[in-house]
Specification:
single chain, alpha/beta, DHBP synthase, Rossmann fold, 2 domains, five-stranded parallel β-sheet, 11 helices, 17% strand, binds threonylcarbamoyladenylate, binds magnesium ion
């Protein structure tokens, strides 16, 4: 199949852009696949009410068919036919965060096919704010099922070029709207129970959710590896996602810091960091830099290629290896935006090992660390503790 790649002006669409959006909408209506930008990552869209079309998504991605898809809508009214009920908390969260990077899990109505929900009796729905996504969905006039537009197991695409790498020849059309703004996938909240539950952290942060909804619980799969016999509530959380080809290892400060020490340890290092540079510095102390440099030397001596994932503040501290900054430690937004692109770049450079600094876990940091620890397959070295 030939994949048509077209550039669309996100801010000021002209007649030519609208004509291309209409063409893409027709592809969706006739059961085809179109990749398009959203504010979080690029999505791979199909008619979410068409069993056959939704199945094509799994085939194109090489995705296990028990991993359900998110339905994307362009207006709040489009939610009603898809769900059995809209709980009060969901209304509050919609008012606060739609359109935007929040997905909610509802009990599904009869019109949503099993292929979209992976056989579950719940359905994930989100209303994206990206104008290209929103216009495309409105023109198509159907809920658009869209996972991230990457091959299953690869980091999510944040540019159209990433989508071309993974999907060329597999889908009808790719809409290039430039790089995305956020860079990590939407926050997922299950609103079917009495207390809303966070299933995947994203740019609508835990702090923001609690401000609006009060009590919010967290699925244990968010924080750490789930045992083989435990079923995470978001089936996608059990797969080794966002994985680069190299072995990624996260390096954290101090033997008493991090998950093992619980939040107290994390808070202590964040306090120290605040003094040092105004916050968000957790994980980039001298010990981390020294450990990464030593491990890099060891791997290089063995003849391996080594990537180092760091920030603008520390990139000059690493004399060897392929050094890439993900942004400014003092601005979590910059880190989220370029994280997946840097992991993909390491893939294309063919590195065997990636040593990564770690980051504060508050606000957007919860999503950043969730993606990083999953990409690392939960390999975390705490300085002073390793080997
Ligand atoms: O930002 C995003 O959400 C992007 C853009 C394209 O909108 N989409 C995205 O889709 O990340 P995907 O398929 O890569 O991730 C969807 C996640 C998976 O972990 C899946 O298991 C979970 O949502 N999910 C979908 N339906 C669910 C349901 N009914 N119950 C629990 N989890 C569900
Ligand atoms: Mg995905």
């Amino acid at each position: 199949m030939d994949t048509k790649v077209v550039v669309i002006d996100r801010e000021k669409p002209e007649a030519a852009d609208i004509a291309l959006l209409n063409e893409a909408a027709q592809v969706l209506q006739s059961g085809g696949l179109v990749a398009f930008p959203t504010e979080t990552v690029y999505g791979l869209g199909a008619n979410g009410l068409d069993d056959e079309a939704a199945r094509k998504i799994y085939a194109a991605k090489g995705r296990p068919s028990d991993n359900p898809l998110i339905l994307h809508i362009s207006a709040v009214e489009e939610l009603t036919p898809l769900v059995r009920a809209v709980p009060e908390t969901a209304r509050k969260l919609m008012d606060a965060f739609w359109p935007g990077p929040l997905t909610m899990i509802f009990e599904k109505s009869g019109i949503v096919p099993d292929s979209t929900t992976g056989g579950l009796d719940t359905v994930a729905v989100r209303m994206p704010s990206d104008p290209i996504a929103s216009r495309l969905i409105a023109l198509a006039g159907i809920p658009v099922a869209a996972p991230s537009a990457n091959l299953s197991g690869r980091p999510s695409p944040t540019t159209a070029q990433h989508v071309v790498e993974d999907m060329s020849g597999r889908i009808e059309m790719i809409l290039d709207g430039g790089p995305v703004g956020i860079g990590v996938e939407s926050t997922i909240v299950d609103v079917t129970g009495p207390v809303p539950m966070l299933l995947r952290p994203g740019a609508v942060t835990m702090e923001m959710l609690r401000d609006v909804a009060g009590e919010v619980s967290v699925d244990p799969a968010v924080a750490g590896p789930v045992a083989a016999d435990v079923k995470p509530k978001a089936p996608g959380m059990k797969y080794r996602h966002y994985a680069p080809k190299a072995e990624l290892v996260l390096v954290e400060d101090g033997g008493d810091i991090g998950e093992a020490a619980g939040t107290d340890g994390v808070r202590r290092i964040e306090k120290a960091a605040e003094k040092a540079d105004g916050g968000h510095a957790s994980g980039a102390g001298r010990a981390v830099i020294d450990t990464i440099n030593r491990l890099t030397e060891e791997r290089l001596a063995e003849g391996h290629r080594v990537g180092i994932l760091c920030t603008d503040e520390t990139k000059a501290c690493y004399p060897a290896g392929i050094v890439r900054s993900v942004g400014l430690r003092t601005s979590q937004e910059t880190i989220a935006r370029s994280l997946f692109a840097v992991l993909r770049e390491f893939d294309s450079l063919g590195v065997d090992y990636i040593y990564s600094e770690s980051f504060a876990r508050d606000h957007l940091g919860q999503a950043i660390m969730n993606r990083l620890t999953k990409a690392a397959g939960y390999r975390v070295i705490r300085c002073g503790e390793e080997r």
